[in-house]
Write a structure and sequence with these properties.
It is a single chain. It is built from 5 helices and 3 strands, in the order H-E-H-E-E-H-H-H. The chain has a 3-stranded antiparallel beta sheet, covered by helices on one side. The longest helix is centred in the middle third of the chain and has 21 residues. The protein has 2 domains: about 90 residues, Double Stranded RNA Binding Domain (2-Layer Sandwich); about 25 residues. It is about 55% helix and about 10% strand.
C-alpha cells in the first residue's frame, strides 16, 4: 500500500469539483518536467514539476510548489479549477488583483503626471509654511 500525500477526502472533493466544472482527465495533457530554483539536488534530479494543459480552454498550469510529484499534481488540478471558475465568472482572483495593483504602483508616471504631483507637493509645502507661527520681532 502506497501512502498518498493528499488525503482521500481532499482528493474526492477535487474530483467532484472537476466533475462539476466539466473537466475530464481525457481533456488534460499532463507533463512532468524538472523543476528549477531552490531545492538543491532533489529539484535538479527529479521531475516533480507538473505542467497541465486543458485542451478545450487552452489554460496552462505549471506547479512546482512541493517536492512531491503527487502533491504537485493535486495542486495543479486545483489551480486549473480556480482559473476555469475565474474565466467562467469573468472575475479576477484576489491574488491576480494584488499582482495588478503592485504592477500599477511600480509603473512609471508620465511626465505630465509627475509634473502635476510635484506642483501639488510644492503647493502643500507652501500652505504649511504659511501656517507656521511668526517668530522673532519681540519687544
Amino acid at each position: 500500500m502506497t501512502v498518498s500525500p493528499v488525503s482521500r477526502e481532499k482528493a474526492e472533493l477535487l474530483r467532484k469539483r472537476m466533475q462539476a466544472l466539466g473537466i475530464r482527465d481525457d481533456d488534460l495533457t499532463e507533463k512532468f518536467v524538472r523543476g528549477a530554483g531552490r531545492g538543491g539536488q532533489k529539484i535538479n534530479k527529479t521531475s516533480s514539476c507538473v505542467y497541465l494543459i486543458h485542451g478545450p480552454t487552452g489554460i496552462e498550469v505549471k506547479c512546482q510548489r512541493e517536492r512531491s510529484q503527487a502533491l504537485n499534481r493535486h495542486l495543479a488540478r486545483r489551480e486549473l479549477c480556480d482559473r476555469l471558475e475565474e474565466q467562467r465568472e469573468k472575475r479576477k482572483s484576489a491574488r491576480r488583483q494584488a499582482a495588478e495593483k503592485i504592477r500599477r504602483q511600480k509603473r512609471r508616471r508620465s511626465r505630465r503626471q509627475k509634473q502635476r504631483m510635484l506642483e501639488d507637493k510644492r503647493h502643500q509645502g507652501e500652505k504649511k509654511r504659511m501656517r507656521a507661527g511668526v517668530t522673532g520681532g519681540g519687544e
